[in-house]
Design brief:
By secondary structure, the chain is mainly α. It is 77% helix and 0% strand. It has 9 helices and no strands. 32% of the residues are buried.
Length: 164
Amino acid sequence: MKLEELYDRYGEKLYHYLTIKLASAEDAEDILQEVFLRLARYSIRWKFVRNEEPYFFRVARNEANRFLKRKHQDEINSQNASALAQVINDSIITDCPDRSDKESLSLALAQLPEEQREVIVLKFFEGLTLKEIAMSCSLSLNTVASRYRYGLSKLKSLLEAKDD
């Protein structure tokens, strides 16, 4: 498959994922470009990958982590929560008809620990299975399942607290 076809097939999904991970649309664009440059540079590696989608998410995750380390932003702190909520709101939550529900979900997602948020975003908004998430994040399936379970539980608590 040609690089252009891969970009057409996975570019938007990877961009959404990177936007959430980096809390910046501009940084996500830059890193997405780096991801596809890396894929072009090392095309011999991924041409033999059986399940390419988790592999591409792993490359995107690794590039994003490199970027965050360079900028000394290993974790998004609470000061960035509202900015992250806006990015989440603008980039991935499109199916909520009620604006207040959409904003509540965005704020709740922004308050989750980054590890839990990443798994939930990949599962719900990017459509990966838990097994694919485990492969793309280089984690065990049990770790991904617990992050998913704890993330959903915390998300539910945050949304219920908002309703009270």
